[in-house]
Amino acid sequence: MRFIHTADLHLDSPFEGLKKIPNDLAKKLYNASMEAFDEIVKDAVKQQVDFILIAGDLFDNPHPSVAAQLFLQKEFVKLQQARIPVYLCLGNHDFLDLKKTALVYPKNVYVFPNQATTKRFFVDGQSVSLTSFSYGKQWTKGQTDFFPLKSSERWHIGMLHGELSSNYEEARYAPFSLSQLKSKNYDYWALGHIHKREVLSNDPLIIYPGNIQGKNIKESGIKGYYLVEEKDGQLVPSFCPLRGIQWIETTFAFAEEETFEKIKDKIENKLKNIKQTVRFAQAILIRIILKAPLELEPSLRDRVIKGVLLGQIQNDLQNDHSIFLYSLIMKSAHQPKNGFWDEATEKKADELTFQRGELYHLADNLVKYRFIDEHFAKSSTADIIKSKSAAYLEEEMDGE
């Protein structure tokens, strides 16, 4: 048996945090998620897989663009022609009440209903059971209690779009615990929802493949999917990278005596070195954190803060569509006067406040609005709130 496990395609969703993008790069960004999924489909046909699992969030919302829908239809037809079944569930972004709305896909595509359901089939004469459910609304309580125990079938796979959480009562996205999943005695859990690739357990295999294309700086690094194969009576997962658009953050320190031109030249050389070392990328989006000396010449500081340095570097590299420096952030080497926001304070603040669940709680009824809930669901939100909170507190303390 051989199958592909992917999730969180988020077709047609925008990239976040980018401004003044060159037209050629903008086209690459628009097509990035679609090209990533097309690469998966081509690999599926080449590898002659027995089926594909898509663990939720094919689209970024329940009403995707016509272009995204047509694209997905064409990809599913390619798989149908190759006689490759697709089993998918809907997640918290592309949720639908399937009793009221019917999805029309080729016959090789099976969409799990809104309640936990087990699909049974055979692969190479071996019985396979696959249990999953689709979100009927944006939020849902834990569903693992409705997943049956493994019975006499050779393989049982669970597909779940949800979050690992100890706060089982208040979590909103089909929360589960590892003990709950392991109690089912399944052979493989195909997870979705978390955009970072992670193996939660090796026995049994419980895996988040991550999303197929990072959409902000917090989703950096190589993206891909898992190819799972039966070897000597065991399921063995292999991560397969995709040639997508990669996000990278790096730091650059410079000395007090260095001129504007020297700094610019060194940054451009650093960008060229990054381009040579990064693998599996058709384009690279880069943010550089500048570590400036405390006694930086005021006019040089102004040229950095006002975007002159960034603009000149972007202009110098405008004909290279494989790399784009989208942000320069300058941080001084000095410590705040009050020194209260130290490492210990930051760690304690992380534990008590700057966790997504705690921020949800503090937001109270505001998260009933979809746009606010989606904002909190982004992996970068907690970091942004923490950074702005620290800056605000330091300013208030300095003013006393």
UniProtKB/TrEMBL annotation:
Does Coiled coil appear among the keywords?
yes
- The source's superkingdom equals Bacteria
Pfam families for the chain: Metallophos
Coiled coil region boundaries: 257-284
GO MF entry, a single one = hydrolase activity
Is Ubl conjugation given among the entry's keywords? no
Limits of the Calcineurin-like phosphoesterase domain: 1-196
Record keywords, A-Z? Coiled coil, Hydrolase
Q: Which PANTHER family match?
A: COMPONENT OF ATP-DEPENDENT DSDNA EXONUCLEASE, PHOSPHOESTERASE
Protein name (Swiss-Prot/TrEMBL): Metallophosphoesterase
